[in-house]
Design a protein that fits this description.
With 248 residues, this protein is α/β, with parallel strands linked by helices. Helix content is 54%, strand content 12%. It has one domain: TIM Barrel, CATH 3.20.20.370. It is built from 10 helices and 8 strands.
């Protein structure tokens, strides 16, 4: 009798986990495959930056992108966007795409569904108020539950995934070498590159002799990808344009 109850509990937990976590994960994987195909078909590279704006790094990035006449996609954190609204305004004025990444960066797998819903709504509201695209959303850590997926769909959000992770938030020495990322772009025929533009606190490893700061890594990677696009004939596009199938 006890065994039977136990088996039912375990089976119930498995079914719950499959629906609650694995279904959104499967949706994400399918979307990523589609995104890879879209990028390859258009020979497109998307530069995407999460968690900003950072008052030190983002203006440097905007200068570099502007000098190269490149438009990128920023998934801003509501709390950082509110504190640096002038930078968000500059980004939208300069043709960059500004989507939402929640207000407080809550991990949907760890916070409750109500808290995740509030974080999502507040982030979208902030982006809309600051003139960004209130319909483009990237989940923090790429994590979603069935509740957050349903919430996004009900709010008419387009989910903006990435296909190539630079792992830039790791310490110097543990990040992916830029050459490695350029090689992946070449092998995939394009892609959506994930990096971050918040002002990351310098760690001991980043400050060691010969190490690179997070900001310098992101700047160098961006410059190299722009160079690759020029030499190898890729188009640097905004994520929403790739997803919409824009031809420009
Ligand atoms: Zn993030």
């Amino acid at each position: 009798m006890i065994m039977e109850v136990l088996v039912r509990v375990v089976l119930g937990a498995c079914v719950f986990a499959a629906v609650w976590f694995l279904f959104p994960f499967a949706v994400r994987r399918l979307s990523e495959i589609r995104l890879c195909r879209l990028c390859r078909a258009r020979r497109a590279i998307v530069l995407s930056y999460d968690d900003g704006p950072g008052p030190a790094l983002t203006p440097r990035l905007l200068d570099l992108l502007g000098a190269s006449n490149v438009a990128a996609t920023f998934f801003v954190l509501g709390r950082n966007a509110e504190a640096n609204s002038d930078i968000v305004s500059r980004a939208t004025r300069e043709r960059h795409e500004v989507g939402s990444h929640t207000f407080g960066h809550g991990n949907a797998w760890k916070v409750g569904p109500l808290r995740a819903a509030r974080d999502l709504a507040r982030g979208i509201g902030t982006v809309r108020r600051l003139g960004g695209d209130g319909r483009l959303f990237r989940p923090p850590y790429g994590k979603m539950t069935l509740a957050t997926l349903a919430d996004c769909l009900l709010r008419g959000q387009r989910l903006g995934w990435w296909t190539i992770d630079s792992k830039d938030t790791r310490d110097s020495g543990a990040r992916r070498p830029a050459e490695d990322i350029l090689a992946e772009i070449r092998s995939r025929g394009g892609g959506v590159v994930l990096a971050h533009d918040f002002d990351k606190a310098q760690t001991q490893a980043d400050a060691a002799p010969g190490a690179t700061s997070h900001a310098d890594y992101v700047m160098d990677l961006t410059e190299r990808i722009i160079g690759l696009a020029e030499t190898d004939g890729y188009r640097l596009m905004r994520l929403g344009d790739v997803m919409r199938g824009a031809r420009e």
